[in-house]
Every structure is written in C-alpha cells, then in structure tokens.
Amino acid sequence: MKLPGKIPTHQLSSQHAALHRDNTRTSLFGYHQLASNKRLSGFEIYSTEGMIPDYGPAKSGFYRFGILTQGSLHVQLGLEHFDISGCAVNFSIPGQIHAKSNVSPDVFGYYLLFEDSFIKDLIPQNNLGQEFPFLNYAGQQIFSCNQPEIDELIALALKIDLELQEISAGRETAIKMYLYLMLLTAKRSYERQHLTAPPANPGSTSHLVTQFYKLVGEHFLSLRQVADYAKLLHVTANHLNRIVKSVSTRTASDAISEMLAQEAKVLLRSTPLSAAEIAYQLNFSEPAAFSRFFKKSTGLTPLEYRQQENKNAFAAFGQ
C-alpha cells in the first residue's frame, strides 16, 4: 500500500536555519541574530557571513533569491550544474531539489528566502512564475548581471535590513515592496540580456538536453519513463537517449534515476521516515526494490547513507 501525503520539504523556521547557518558565527545582517519579535512570517534575508558552505541536496517550500558579489561556488538545480562567480544572481523554487558546494573562501553576497504568500499583496498568488521567468522551471535560474544592476540589488537588500532592525510604521509593507523591486531589477536584467527570447537553434543538441533536464527536474515524481519526456519534447525515445548520451555519457533513463536518487537522499537526510516508508512514498513496488535501486545509484544502502549523513552533520557542528 502506498503511504499518503506529500514529500516533505523544508519550511522557513529556526529548524531550517540550522541547515544553512552556523550559529557559532557572528553576523549583524538580516535574520542571523535578529530578535524574534522583529521577524516576519514567510520571509528571511541573510548575508553569506555565517553561511554553511555545503548545503543539500534539499527541497524547500519557498523561493530562494541569491546575489553573489564576489567569489565563486557550485550550484546544482535538479540535474543541472552551474559554476558561478560574481556578479550573478541565482534562484530556486518551491519543490525543486537544489544543492551548493565548492564555496570559495572569499565568497560574499546576500540571499533572500520567501514564500509566495509573503508577496501575494503585490503579485497574485501562484503567478510568480509567470511574472518572473527565473522563478519557473522553464526559465534560466542563474545568470550574470552588470555592476549597476548588482549595486541596485545590494542597495535594496540593505534597505530591507534597515527596516528589519527597526519596528516602524509600514515596516512589513516596505520590505515587501523592496523585495518586489529586487525581483523587478532581476527581471529587467533578464530581459536586457534577451534571456526570454527563443533559442537561436531550438533543435540543437544542447538545447534539447537542457529542456530534458528541466522537465525531469519538474516531473520525475510522476513521469518515470523516457518515452514520457520524448513525447513532451516531440522526439522519439531512442533519439532522446542517443542525444543525452552523446552529451553526458549516460542515458536519459540514467538521468531520471539520478533525479529519483536525489529525492531519496533528501528524504533520508531530512525526515525520520524509514527506508521502507520512503520506498512506498516513491512508488517502489517493495522496500527491497528501493534498496537495490539506491545501492546501484549511490554505492550505499539507504541505512549506510543516512548514517554517513548523520555522522557528517555531527562533525560539522563539532559534536
């Protein structure tokens, strides 16, 4: 029998903050040391001071808006991998598996976490992905900005921090408006660079593979067969397999399995669900089938992976 319920995702809370913030570090900016009576529901902002360098794979029930001003890091969104350096912005959306690693020692920037309900007064709920294409699986979620655009984003982030530190009339409304202006600045940069324009060669190998990866990241929990994605991309399953393998040395089926393995990792890291419960949650016919799949994908059994992650977490916090 399949277990009911949705796949758990991280929500904005003190428990979530422990996954990406080092509470032994000092940072006066944003939420890192903000008094509880000054916090707002559905919104957080931080600088990279006090940020834990490695994060994920994880899923969140909110949007993430990162601004990199210097240094570099590696970001994974679903099956896509990006090495980014300042000046750049990066986004992730609710339900999207994401991770970061290889953070350089000189990295600096800011990041905002917000639920769509926080900004619904300015943008109708569930329309964020239409208004801002980078808040959509189909859009380009990481892109460079010019210096004036980065300067504008920094200035608005600092205004948000100033509002947070004081309790003044219209404080929450002002923060929502500054957030909207930050998204608008990013959108203008996106449009300036013609990132919304159709690709010059929509039939190219690289474009097809990118679109496939984006579709897998969005639909892998419900669509498990290569033929499902081939139909969406208007190609044959054999052609899709051939193209994906020519670019990555793995088949399209391997890519779907990798995405499913990432989901399993999220559940093993972030929930108390047993391997058997996860097996049914992910629609495997039986726990043994899930264990075989996970061992083939990662080289570890589900229990070994969970023990390894718990050990790493204890080591990270010096316990």
UniProtKB/TrEMBL annotation:
Pfam families: HTH_18. SMART domains: HTH_ARAC. Residues 210-308 form the HTH araC/xylS-type domain. InterPro entries: Homeodomain-like_sf (IPR009057), HTH_AraC (IPR018060), Tscrpt_reg_AraC-type_HTH (IPR020449). GO terms for molecular function: DNA-binding transcription factor activity; sequence-specific DNA binding. Keywords: DNA-binding, Transcription, Transcription regulation. This is AraC-like DNA-binding protein.
